[in-house]
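Subgroup meeting minutes
Present: P.N., E.W., G.H.
Scribe: E.W.

1. P.N. recapped why we're keeping a running log of single-chain structure predictions: easier to compare across weeks, and new members can see raw inputs and outputs side by side.
2. G.H. added today's entry (65 aa).
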Amino acid sequence: MSRGEDGYYIVQCPTLPGCVTQGKTLDEALKNIKEVIELCLEEKESRAMARAFGTEEVSLHTVSV
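Output recorded in log:
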């Protein structure tokens, strides 16, 4: 997670390339990344790729899908 020049929170899922979003608040950004992860996992190729990666904690925030 980082903050853009406009003050929005930018979050990404490093396991899924291109799985990035933002939100005006941290709660909004986390809600948005959950939706983006769900959309990415709908793709068969992305699901196979996600299974190939191990779990890695990269933040103090948890998103359940």
